[in-house]
Design goal:
The protein is mainly beta. It folds into two domains: 150 residues, Immunoglobulin-like; 145 residues, Immunoglobulin-like (Sandwich). The chain has two helices and 27 strands.
């Protein structure tokens, strides 16, 4: 039975090791206050990777981190039956050691770690992985086993921005707009991420047009006015720049149908931040598409409103 925080310092050498396990917490920032969700909001099916480094318990990470040894390297942690995540094999944590931990999800993500840049994700392509939600943890340092014998609380953050689209038309029955494709023009989709000293994305490659919705059946307006367009939700690298939205639609007006008619918006500024959720509302007429200032919230608010 692991000893708890009442253990006296002179008993460390004879104390039983603690098993390392983690309680992932997906932090959220609401519009009015900052709160942390409980671990049940971290997807139970999501495994994360963890790197852990060890120092003698009397040495602080801020001074001695270059001397740290690897305790765990890219180890998969999976959910257990008790809202804790566990490594595949027993991982005894000796009372003489202080740990530093950093984690990422999904586990399949290719990462590295160094003291200068922290957690590094190289050459990520959001267009090729539009539904991959990159999560990263704070770097936790100077952790002692007697204070974490019930599990290490591990806060995670979103590294990407989420974008969704709603649409409406000013046309009325029997006129209609059948949206078949939606494209965001000139976006950066490839980049590398570092978590230290501040979480930062470095984009590279040329800007490209990104298709966020493509359907032969189409999205019928006004029947579906002001509804989220199915499958238009995408995750993007945070970025600032100019974009336009281009749509392809069948438009029925005056008894005639213009098939695969292309409409393009005026340029607008993109200023997407990590962990934020942007909903763009489009107003489509027979000859123009207007974009309203996006509604901005966080991922948790988005989950509540859908």
């Amino acid at each position: 039975m692991p000893l708890t925080s009442c253990l006296l310092s002179h008993d460390y050498e004879s104390a039983q090791p603690v098993e390392l396990r983690c309680r992932p917490i997906l932090e959220q920032t609401t519009r009015t206050t900052t709160t942390a969700t409980n671990s049940k909001l971290f997807p139970q099916e999501l495994d994360f990777g963890l790197r852990a480094y060890a120092l003698p318990r009397d040495r602080k990470w801020s001074e001695f981190s270059p001397a740290a040894t690897t305790f765990l390297h890219n180890t998969r942690f999976a959910a257990g039956p008790d809202d804790l995540w566990y490594p595949p094999t027993s991982t005894p944590w000796d009372y003489n050691s202080a740990l530093a931990l950093v984690a990422y999800a999904p586990f399949s993500l290719v990462t590295s770690y160094d003291l200068r840049n922290g957690l590094v994700v190289d050459n990520f392509d959001s267009e090729a992985n539009p539904n991959t939600d990159i999560l990263y943890s704070d770097l936790l340092t100077d952790l002692l086993p007697e204070r974490n014998d019930l599990g290490v609380d591990l806060p995670f953050h979103h590294a990407l921005a989420k974008v969704d689209v709603k649409a409406r038309t000013v046309l009325v029955d029997p006129q209609y707009v059948r949206v078949k494709q939606i494209v965001f023009e000139q976006l950066r989709t490839q980049g590398s991420f570092v978590s230290l000293p501040n979480p930062t994305w470095y984009t590279f490659a040329e800007a490209t047009d990104v298709v966020v919705y493509d359907s032969a059946e189409g999205w019928l307006l006004p029947e579906r006015n002001d509804l989220y367009i199915d499958e238009s939700s995408h995750l993007f690298i945070p970025q600032t720049g100019l974009s336009r939205i281009r749509i392809v639609a069948d438009i029925m007006r005056g008894g005639l149908i213009d098939s695969d008619f292309t409409l393009t918006s005026d340029p607008f500024t993109v200023a997407w931040q990590a962990g934020k959720y942007y909903t763009y509302s489009l107003e489509i007429s027979a000859d123009a598409v207007k974009i309203y200032q996006p509604n901005t919230s966080d991922f948790a608010e988005e989950e509540e409103q859908e």
